[in-house]
Amino acid sequence: MTTSDMPPAAKQVIVVGSGLAGLTASYSALRLGVPVHMLERSPKPGGNSIKASSGINGAGTRFQAQAASANPQAGHDSRDLFYTDTLRSAGKRLSQAHGREHEARERLIGVLVDQSVKAIELLSDELGVDLSVVTRLGGHSAARTHRGGGKMPPGAAIVTTLLAKLKENENFTLSTSTTVTALTTTSSPDGFVTVKGVEFTRSGSGSETLLGPVVFATGGFAGDAHGLLAKYRSDLAGLPSTNDARPGAHDILTAAGAELVDMDSVQIHPTGFIDPANPTAMVKFLAAEMLRGEGGILLHKGERFVDELQTREVVSGTIMEGMEPEEKDGLRQWDVQLLLDPGATKAAGNHVGFYLFKGLMAKKKVKDLDETTRKTVEEYAKVVRGESEDKLGRTSFGHWDLGLDGKIDPDSEVVIGSVTPITHFTMGGALINEKGQVLASKPGEPSVKKPIEGLWAAGEITGGIHGDNRLGGSSLLECVVFGQIIGEEAAKAAREN
Ligand SMILES: Cc1cc2nc3c(=O)[nH]c(=O)nc-3n(C[C@H](O)[C@H](O)[C@H](O)COP(=O)(O)OP(=O)(O)OC[C@H]3O[C@@H](n4cnc5c(N)ncnc54)[C@H](O)[C@@H]3O)c2cc1C
Ligand SMILES: *[C@@H]1O[C@H](CO)[C@@H](O)[C@H](O)[C@H]1NC(C)=O
């Protein structure tokens, strides 16, 4: 469609994607009195956000202060400590960036940490989500990841609350089973484009157009195993994921000139459960890291192969580089078992109960293990007893207590499940500035960058904040912080229209 035959732009904000970034952007646009039309390709809203299980980061919140007064070991947190932790986690992507690029990355991290308290307060005080429990995750110098005290995981609690709030507003329209296929643009003489709206299809219908400022919140591409993931990380093609299986929408942005950064930085988790009832499922449950921390060991054909407490990168790399994958219909996974002795099982408590209930792990008596595995367990018990050194270098054994008294009761029960490396989060995505505007490079002059008029993005679709590695709890945070910013910016643009 050319611009001349277009109807005048509607005074509404178009939000693409109904995860936490899109929901927050909608909320802040509606708060300014501007109508919102949200388009979501899936039949159900919530994206990967609804699955988030650990929580959302905030540094300097009253919940942290309460936790610290109850437990002095929670550690004192501050904006600066969170900032430093995030810089460290961003690694080489940040430290090896120079000049303007380095400053731009630091500014994005600055916005994320500066507005974390405001983000937590929006969810808890304004929307009433319980975020009173604070825990310390790996890579963090203090307890700062917030979730509720009840049974509902934080992602589901936040998403359902926000969605209910939006649906109360007469100015909110949600179209599910509606896929955005392109941005509607006009081009200017300087080679950059202006975004006027989106083109979309509903199930069974042809292409339609909707006009207005566009907020793009379509999430990451870890679930796009044969598309963007294969394109940017051919070594990860066909890997299962914790993410919903769906195509990345990044090409829609690049078609308008958007620049993508850090696309090859992908978070891999070494242990996703292979469900015996559905072994070739592309979407898998995570086997929590703490299972190994509490004493679990990893086996391949009955033998240990790595210090299980090494970093995620090392454990995943040892599996993927050292073993032949099993390939079927384009899916690639590896044959690894996670084994917990009675001590580790007890320490991991509820988690193991849930995995047993789901059929992802099973109990087995030591006498029913195959001979190699039994030998491995006996040798490992010697290491835990301090009689021999671990050849793989493990020095901390969690709550493993099988065979500590010198012999192993053949009737003792271990818990075993099959696991494989899975993709979990994509750090890369569209380059944005502090206002969440999507940046484009001038054709032929890559160092000249300019915001694309009429287009904003937030959440996992964006890149440049996390660098090498995202800290746990920081993606929900980026959705709220940048979602709020771009909802307001797009609403202002809609009003001025
Ligand atoms: C199992 C799991 C646990 C996690 N736990 C945590 C945690 O505890 N803390 C944390 O901070 N992070 C966690 N994460 C990461 C975090 O949940 C995500 O990074 C974040 O929710 C992404 O939000 P988003 O709004 O950017 O995208 P999403 O929530 O993925 O939403 C994007 C939406 O856009 C839609 N969409 C895509 N393309 C189109 C299109 N062309 N047209 C229309 N709609 C489209 C999708 O269908 C989807 O609904 C977890 C992730 C997973 C998978
Ligand atoms: C709905 O939008 C209109 C502008 O189109 C605005 O005047 C009105 O105040 C909005 N209503 C609410 C509840 O925000």
How does this structure look, described?
48% of the residues are buried. The chain has a six-stranded mixed β-sheet, covered by helices on one side. Mean pLDDT is 94; it is low at 1-5. It has 14 helices and 22 strands. It has 497 residues and is an alpha+beta fold. α1 (20-31) packs parallel to α6, α1 packs parallel to α14 (474-496) and α3 (79-95) runs antiparallel to α4 (99-114). The longest helix has 23 residues, at 474-496. The protein is globular, with a radius of gyration of 24 Å. It has helices at 20-31, 62-70, 79-95, 99-114, 116-126, 154-167, 228-232, 250-254, 290-293, 312-322, 342-348, 350-358, 371-385, 474-496, and strands spanning 13-16, 36-39, 56-57, 133-135, 145-147, 172-175, 178-187, 193-202, 207-211, 214-216, 260-261, 266-273, 297-299, 326-328, 331-333, 336-340, 362-365, 413-426, 429-431, 437-442, 445-457, 462-463. Helix content is 32%, strand content 23%. The structure holds flavin-adenine dinucleotide (FAD) and 2-acetamido-2-deoxy-beta-D-glucopyranose (NAG). The site of 2-acetamido-2-deoxy-beta-D-glucopyranose has 5 residues, from loops.
Q: Would you spell out the secondary-structure blueprint of this structure?
A:
Elements: E1 13-16, H1 20-31, E2 36-39, E3 56-57, H2 62-70, H3 79-95, H4 99-114, H5 116-126, E4 133-135, E5 145-147, H6 154-167, E6 172-175, E7 178-187, E8 193-202, E9 207-211, E10 214-216, H7 228-232, H8 250-254, E11 260-261, E12 266-273, H9 290-293, E13 297-299, H10 312-322, E14 326-328, E15 331-333, E16 336-340, H11 342-348, H12 350-358, E17 362-365, H13 371-385, E18 413-426, E19 429-431, E20 437-442, E21 445-457, E22 462-463, H14 474-496
Parallel strand pairs: 1-2, 1-10, 2-6, 10-21, 19-22
Antiparallel strand pairs: 3-5, 4-5, 7-8, 8-9, 11-19, 12-18, 13-16, 14-15, 16-18, 17-18, 20-21
Helix pairs in contact: 1-6, 1-14, 3-4
The chain binds flavin-adenine dinucleotide and 2-acetamido-2-deoxy-beta-D-glucopyranose.
